[in-house]
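Troubleshooting: if your tokenizer reports a length mismatch, compare against these two reference records.
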Amino acid sequence: MSISLEAINWLAVLGAIIANMAVGAIWYSPLAAGKAWLESTGRSQEEMEGGGGAMALAIVPAALNATIIAILASGLGVATAGGGALLGLLVWLGFVMPTNWIEVIFDRKSYRTALINNGNFIITMPLMGAIIGMWG
């Protein structure tokens, strides 16, 4: 197997990272699932204020997710938004969702937290895949 990083459209990866961060900012805001997520984690809004450092750190996993989706898309010949979205959905289904449920089982995170987090990922992973598939 050969992985060619030269074949990756890095602007598409950047677009996917931006989309991931934008959806996450909306998803975890009080306008969407933010209040329910805070309740499910036992945190308060005051604890989360000034969380710019955490947001900056969230770019790292977003960048890793986008890069891996781009590598997979390149290797599999995915070159459409629909194919990329399907790839992102499969990455969520095969890797992200099971990992979140292992945290419920062994780390005793709440089911509600896992459902909220997976709600974000089931949107962002196919979206990142669609962007990469369309631009890749």
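Reference record two:
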Amino acid sequence: MRGKLLVAVCLLLASTAQSIHAQTRMGIELGSRPAPLALEAVDGGLVDLPIGSRPVLLEFWATWCAKCRALHPIMIAAHEEFGDRVSFYGIAVAVGQSPRRVRRHLDKHPLPFPMLWDSEGEAVRRFMAPVTSYIVILDAQGRVAYTGADTEQDVLGALRRIVGAPQSSEDS
């Protein structure tokens, strides 16, 4: 009986580990190289993402997203530390919002980097964004080096690994 219980517990743990692993593999595959993409800026004009010329951080975002609001100070801190070495872009998804609504929101809650409008969902499809609050970081060669979603992401740690910046003593 004891052996059967041990086997059942091992099978349950293996199944749980597979489920957790499957849940953490969301969005575009790490190491993949997305094709070049141009999106409309919410302020007008077309923006070509500089994929493959320097690291790029993309935040899939919406005005109604509570998790995106929680990420706001993290994104500002990340831009303050890495804005000179990483191209940051917010990608406003075209679900439940309009460019006008996004502009009004940004007037009240500004971000220090460009906000792009994904009117046709091209960026959502290209990066396989499963939710808002989804962040993708591409390395300087244009490969996907990080993906994550939700409020508990270590965006600064990921950027430090990708850009090669030393960890601060507070992070150790």
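Descriptive notes for reference record two:
- Strands lie at 38-41, 46-48, 56-61, 87-93, 115-118, 134-138, 144-148.
- DSSP finds five helices and seven strands in the chain.
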